[in-house]
Design brief:
This protein is an alpha+beta fold. It contains five helices and ten strands.
């Protein structure tokens, strides 16, 4: 039986699915890449999208953006470069996570003090995710976290290759990946 308040509220009161959240995040990223959102507004809206509980909250975050356009490979590469530059030039959100260099082949991320990168945020699990150096570069994996790991807005369900310019989220904490400079 469906409660009256949900039936009366319509689809705006339905719980958000992963697919809806990913679509909203993609629209926000596209809007930011096209210059339609300021850095501050983009950060605020991504944070709100990650915390949204019902569909109506997501719709309100993207209501003033134009419809989503398909981006080709060249446009996606340009978007990644723009995000990398924005992350290194602008202070604030999203902070930069520099891919490790040197002999270390595994890098752990979580709330636990023993992790290589400790994040003091309640949405981050004690042992949340790992970055492992493979033959083709770094690979991101979720370590069974409660709130999930996302790569460019998509939930990580298995080992996923990452590179500079990618947007990674551990729970509600988001970073732009960069290569070590110097």
């Amino acid at each position: 039986m469906v409660p009256d308040d949900i039936r009366a509220g319509g689809p705006d009161h339905f719980r958000v699915s992963d697919a809806e959240r990913e679509m909203a995040l993609a629209e926000l990223r596209d809007g930011y890449a096209e210059g339609r959102l300021t850095h501050e507004t983009f950060g605020y809206r991504v944070d709100e999208a990650l915390r949204a509980r019902v569909s109506g909250e997501l719709r309100r975050l993207v209501a003033d953006l134009p419809g989503r356009r398909r981006m080709g490979a060249a446009a996606r590469a340009g978007w990644r470069r723009a995000l990398a530059v924005a992350g290194s030039c602008l202070r604030g959100w999203p902070p930069v996570l520099t891919l490790p260099r040197g002999p270390q082949s595994r890098f752990t991320i979580g709330r636990e003090a023993a992790c290589d990168m400790t994040l003091a945020d309640r949405t981050v699990s004690r042992w949340h995710a790992s970055l492992e150096r493979g033959a083709g570069g770094w690979v991101l994996a979720d370590l069974g976290s409660t709130n999930g790991t996302r790569l460019n807005g998509w939930r990580v369900n298995g080992p996923s290759p990452v590179r500079a310019g990618d947007l990674v989220s551990f729970g509600a904490v988001t970073f732009v990946l960069t290569e070590h400079q110097g």
